[in-house]
Each structure stands twice: as C-alpha cells, then as structure tokens.
Amino acid sequence: MAAREAGGVVLGKSADKLFSLSGLFAVYKPKGPTSAGVLNLLKERLLAEAGVQTNGNKRNQVLKMGHGGTLDSAAAGVLVVGIGKGTKMLRTMLAGSKKYTAIGLLGKATDTLDATGKVTEEKPYDQITKGDLENVLQKFTGDIMQVPPLYSALKKDGERLSTLMKRGEAVEAKPARPVRVYSLSLQQFQPPLFTLDVECGGGFYVRSLVSDIGKELSTCATMQELTRTKHGPFTLEEHALYEDKWTIDEIARSLEHCTSLLPGEPSHKKLKTEHAAETAVSCEDK
C-alpha cells in the first residue's frame, strides 16, 4: 500500500479511490497549453483533492497517468488519458481514427505551417472558387503519401525536430510516408478562410494537409485553428471532461461510462499504417 502513503502519512478514502482508478477517459485540452502541461495540471488537481503532497516530478511515481495522441499547444479538443493500467492501452488507442475540424487560410505560408509561425510566402488566391477547393480535396482522400512538418514531435537522434529547429539547427525534411484519410469535406468557404472536417488514421498532420492543399491550388495556405473532435471512440461532445469536471468522482464516472467504448470501433478503423507504433510518441497536432 506504499502508493497510499505520502511522507509516512497514511491517506484517506479519497486517495484510496484515486489510486484504484484504472482505464481510459478523455479530457478537453484548450488552445494554449501543451498536452503534457494539461496532464500535469490534471494530476496536480487529483492529488491535491486526495490530500497527497508531492514534490516536483515525484508525482509521476505516485500516480500513474499518461496521454495519447499529443495535441499541439495551438490546437484544442479531445485528449485521451490513461490512468493506472489504462496507460498500457494508450498505444492501441493511437492506432484508431481521429476526427478534426480545421480552419485554413489561403494566400499565406508559415515556417510552422500554422498561425504560430513566421510568414515565409504570400500568394494571390482570388481566383480560387469553392468548386476548385472541393475538387482538390478528392486528391487527399484514401491512402496517400505525406511529408511531416519540420516543426513536429518527430525525432532525430533522440531530439524533437521542433526543438532542433528552434535552436536554429539545419533539419532535413523526413521522407514522405503513407497515411490514411477516411473522409475529407469542405464545411465552409469564405475566402481567404476555409473550414475542413477530416477523419484520418495515425501519424497524420492536418497542418501538412492544409499546406499541400494550398500548393495544389497554385497558391499557399496555412492552418489557423485546429480542434480534435474525436479520437478512437471518444468524442468531444460526449466524453471530454472540461476542467471544472477534473475531480476524482467525475473521472470515476467517466471511466465507468467509457468502459463500453473500448472493445471495438468499426473494423475499417482498425487498419494500421506501418508507422502506427511511432504515433504513440510522435503524433502532434496532426
């Protein structure tokens, strides 16, 4: 029962309940913080409610939690969290499909492929029609090849490419790799802005998709906003706990509710690309 002790003090019922929690649930990650930052805040809230005193990173030894499918700090939406034995299920979850709503901006390109980067190129876009955009989307549906962004969580010699880029080091683009797009549709077109709904497999970067769409239209484009609306069976509308629900009781209820989701998704969603294992640590904003 060592996990239920802190500083030699035996903890109460809240701590007993917290340390007995096991499984997968989802939280809402707002735009701004990193996925790791959201997870650490969640841990701190739960441990504080349970009356567990922690010092720095020792909380990781006290409460076993992890998240799957990292969302970039500029993105929002569903973040799947594993607690207890649920942490071992995260890698399997990452092989499932994800849904996103993305807002793209025509006529501008940035070094990060999103609104956080520096503008690297500007091109006219007035000639592009809604029909042009819808026709182009067909080329990005199904099994396609995609070059990941330079600013990403993918690693070179053990370090994230984004970290190397920020240090000003020369970074070569990773080779194009196979990714899967289950569905892609245009929801709104108000030039220069366009809104897409995307359902994709693991390892897919929506930033790269928006950039590639711009190039295909003989202009350029960058992603302005990104929201993950579904990850595996977990949806933003039904399952994601907002910060005011980050309590031991609410998470216990969510774990119970989500248990029925885990046995399976539709069989076509279980198809894994050859890099599916890599997504456990590298799928960033998508």
Mean pLDDT: 83
Q: Please give the alpha-carbon distance between the first and last residues.
A: 40 Å
Quaternary assembly: single chain
Any low-confidence stretches, pLDDT <50, length ≥5? Answer: 265-284
Number of helices: 9
The secondary-structure element order is: EEHEHHEEHEEEHEEEHEEHEEEHH
Characterize the biggest β-sheet. 10 strands, mixed
What structural class do the secondary elements suggest? alpha+beta
Work out the number of β strands: 16
Helix content: 25-40%
User: What percentage of amino acids are in beta strands?
Assistant: 25-35%
CA radius of gyration: 20 Å
Please explain how this structure is put together.
The radius of gyration is 20 Å and the shape is elongated. A hairpin with a 2-residue loop joins strand 12 and strand 13 (193-200). Helix 1 (13-20) runs antiparallel to helix 2 (35-50). It has 286 residues and is an alpha+beta fold. 26% of the residues lie in helices and 30% in strands. The longest helix has 16 residues, at 35-50. Strands 3, 4, 5, 6, 9, 12, 13, 14, 15 and 16 form a 10-stranded mixed β-sheet that branches. A two-stranded antiparallel sheet has the order 1-2.
Summarize the structure.
The protein is of the alpha+beta class and 286 residues long. It has helices at 13-20, 35-50, 59-62, 90-94, 130-137, 161-166, 206-216, 248-258, 279-282, and strands at 5-6, 9-10, 23-29, 65-68, 76-83, 98-106, 108-110, 119-122, 142-146, 155-156, 159-160, 177-190, 193-200, 221-231, 234-235, 240-241.
